[in-house]
């Protein structure tokens, strides 16, 4: 993208040079027309030549404007692409953060399940007091439900971000195809 931007700047410089040459040529054609008028009948051929040069200057100016418009469109598309890529990078960072949160949640859940298992084994090993075992199971069940809800929320965020990235990329591709 940086090279594309540099290329459009160089093209812009070339167009400015072409415009300067066209302006000078136009002045020369104007001077030639004035001299042809001064020369009278002897300068008629020179007047025709000066008129042709003026027409070439007008055509050059139009072509230069057309090229500038195309370069502007390329530059706008380039800017849009840079913006889209920046947004995608932001979404990737967000998804990476969500994935990290999911990893932490899963790790915490695994630790809680291991703790629950140890408590259940201890309760069973003691000949277990039924009420204590039920309380441990109930608590673990609640913690598991909380972890499950957290994982669901993180998954929803990831799906939302993925959908947003897809929409942005479709828009970007549509704009690029329009060029």
3D architecture notes:
The two termini are 16 Å apart. The chain is mainly α and 179 residues long. It has a single domain, classed as Helix Hairpins (Orthogonal Bundle), CATH 1.10.287. Helix 1 runs antiparallel to helix 2 (44-125). The protein has helices spanning 2-39, 44-125, 130-178. It is 94% helix and 0% strand. It contains 3 helices and no strands.
Name the descriptors:
179 residues; mainly alpha; Helix Hairpins; 3 helices; 0% strand
List SSEs in N-to-C order.
HHH
What is the makeup of the main sheet? Answer: none
Task: Give the termini distance in whole angstroms.
Answer: 16 Å
Helix content: over 70%
Proportion of residues in extended strands: under 5%
Spans of at least 5 consecutive residues whose pLDDT stays below 50 are none
Q: Could you report the average pLDDT, rounded to the nearest whole number?
A: 78
Number of domains: 1
Give the overall shape, derived from the CA principal axes.
rod-shaped
Q: Would you count the extended β strands for me?
A: 0
- Rg, Cα atoms, Å: 37 Å
- Helix count equals 3
Please identify the top-level CATH class: Mainly Alpha
CATH topology: Helix Hairpins
Structural class computed from helices and strand pairing: mainly alpha
> What is the level-2 CATH architecture name?
Orthogonal Bundle
């Amino acid at each position: 993208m940086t090279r594309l931007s540099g290329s459009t700047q160089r093209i812009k410089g070339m167009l400015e040079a072409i415009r300067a040459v066209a302006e000078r040529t136009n002045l020369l054609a104007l001077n030639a027309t004035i001299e042809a008028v001064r020369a009278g009948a002897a300068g008629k051929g020179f007047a025709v030549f000066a008129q042709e040069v003026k027409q070439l200057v007008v055509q050059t100016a139009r072509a230069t404007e057309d090229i500038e418009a195309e370069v502007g469109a390329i530059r706008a598309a380039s800017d849009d692409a840079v913006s889209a890529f920046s947004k995608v990078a932001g979404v990737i960072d967000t998804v990476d953060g969500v994935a990290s949160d999911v990893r932490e949640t899963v790790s915490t859940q695994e630790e809680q399940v291991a703790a629950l298992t140890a408590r259940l084994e201890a309760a069973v090993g003691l000949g277990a007091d039924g009420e204590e075992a039920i309380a441990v199971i109930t608590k673990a069940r609640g913690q598991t439900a909380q972890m499950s809800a957290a994982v669901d929320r993180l998954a929803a965020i990831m799906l939302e971000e993925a959908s947003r990235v897809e929409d942005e990329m479709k828009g970007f591709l549509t704009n690029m195809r329009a060029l």
